[in-house]
Amino acid sequence: MDKGYIENGFIVDLANVKKTSEIIYELSRVLDMPESKGKHICLKLGSVNLSQAELTSIKAHIELMESQLAFISTSSTQTLDSAAALDIKISEFTNEVEAPSFETKEVNDETTEALDNIFGEEVEQVVDNKEIKEVVHHDDVPLEQVVHKSDEEQANEAESLPTLYLRKTIRSGQSISSDGNIIVIGDVNPGSEIIAKGDITVWGILGGIAHAGSEGNNFARIRALKLNPVQIRIGEVFARRPDTVNLPYIQKSSEYVPEEAFTYKGSIVIKKIHDEN
Amino acid sequence: MTGRVIVITSGKGGVGKTTTNANIGTALARAGNKVVMIDTDLGLRNLDLLLGLENRIVYTIVDVVEERCKLKQALVKDKKNPNLCLLAAAQTRDKTAVTEEQLKDICEKLKKDFDYILVDCPAGIEQGFQNAVAGATEAIVVTTPEMSAVRDADRIIGLLEAKEEIKSYKLLLNRVRPNLIKSNDMMSVEDVVEILSADLIGIIPEDTGIITSTNKGEPIVNDEKSLAGLAYRNVAQRIMGEEVPFLNLEEETSVLAKVKKFFSNLIGKEK
């Protein structure tokens, strides 16, 4: 990737904007100023997902305002793909202004040790809040491709575990854990958590936190009529709800297709369970 | 006589617990029941203000448990309705001044003389909540169609389900704004009921009249013209076991809306 260097241009920072319409609006506002005519624009986008069509219209809009789109930067893979298809350059911005340097005194080992004693060593944490990946929705991948060799084994293992059967709504603040599988007939509402050594099956909407295979079994499965968990954890793999669909409560529908979550190459993948499978 | 002890709770603050308490209590008393309201929000009492009874309080619930007065002496009679009484909270103490056992005891004693004992619960899930719930056998969970209020109501329902003494709980949806629901800017009544999977006892529309009635110390149920007042009277009837259909809030009843509708029809016809 190129470093974001431009001549005769400026950066438009829209990293926090979530909607295409807002991007267009903000751009119109900036580009309407006479001093921005005929300049090169570096568009800094955040996690917003743009299709090719949306990106084309943004580019066209910039050109209409007598400017040019030089680079974009984004954290969304969809936008990256769209940009690549449209031949729009992608860049990573670097801060041109150097961060102010503070005078630092040498910290001796004794002080470090003392500080460690007070705050504890947090550096070696495996899961970092920022590093939790988003859940990947995979509807087009044929199931054969993602079936693991140990799938049969896993099914047998889950069957050998005891099962906790609950026929109620799991509400905010409630925590259910089990050394076996958990089956909930009802909704698992946001603010609650379910932790099972084996599989988790919810006959309703799963909106809280679900952790299957809590003792390190990465082959455990989580199923629900609708998966809308804040976080989903399978064995040692964590995933969070994508920011684009960050709605704690979703409408009930009779048209839900049951979904299943499992790990695939270190990510958590959600797949709809259709009849034909 | 054995009265029903109903706790009115919500988890979240500011959703209208106390307003609901004052209005349902007044409506039940208007229907001829003997009603007593207990304010358990020690240190942050409000129920007396809503009823306009602040100036009549001599003894509070803390005086009762600390045996400075008899229970009957501490009951403040309503200005209009002799069937309605208030057992006020102490403003100068905190939640630890009364225990769960003491509240249970007070409820048991009041059951003999009253049809309905409404317990006004403080916000939160700490000792204040535990105290308020201690003597009750029924609960009304007040919530508004907002994510945060619904989440807290969900938490409260979970706690109520865990209490053996609470035999039933009902949902009261407050501050509903039909035009916001119509434009999809507010969760609909159905959404909230489905999320919380609880039975509904009332839908109260947002009403600016509540503010003036609170300031005047005059519950809105006494205002025959108010839609919120009518909704509260319906809730009281449902508590008494009558079947009353829910208000259709979709229909706009304000004069302005009618005028708008008239003109839009007129323009529509001309085209």
Structure report:
The complex is a heterodimer of chains A (277) and B (271). Chain A folds into two domains: 2-92, Alpha-Beta Plaits; 132-272, Pectate Lyase C-like (3 Solenoid), CATH 2.160.20. Chain A has helices at residues 20-31, 52-64, 77-85, 109-119, 143-146, 151-160, and strands at 2-3, 9-14, 40-45, 68-73, 89-92, 133-134, 136-137, 163-166, 175-178, 181-185, 193-196, 200-206, 209-212, 222-227, 231-234, 237-240, 259-264, 267-272. Chain A is elongated and about 70 Å long. Chain A is of the alpha/beta class and 277 residues long. Chain A has a seven-stranded mixed sheet, with no helix packed on it. In chain A, strands 6-16-15-13-11-9 form a six-stranded mixed sheet, with no helix packed on it. The longest helix of chain A has 13 residues, at 52-64. In chain A, helix 1 (20-31) runs parallel beside helix 2 (52-64). In chain A, strand 15 and strand 16 (237-240) form a beta hairpin. Chain B is globular. Chain B starts with a strand and ends with a helix. Chain B has 271 residues and is of the alpha/beta class. Chain B has an eight-stranded mixed sheet with strand order 3-4-2-5-1-6-7-8, sandwiched between helices. Chain B has a single domain (4-270), classed as Rossmann fold (3-Layer(aba) Sandwich), CATH 3.40.50.300. Chain B is built from twelve helices and eight strands. The chains are: A alpha/beta (277), B alpha/beta (271). Chain A binds chain B through residues 168-169, 171-174, 186-187, 189-191, 248-249, 251-252, and chain B through 147, 150-152, 154-155, 157-159, 161, 187, 191, 194-197.
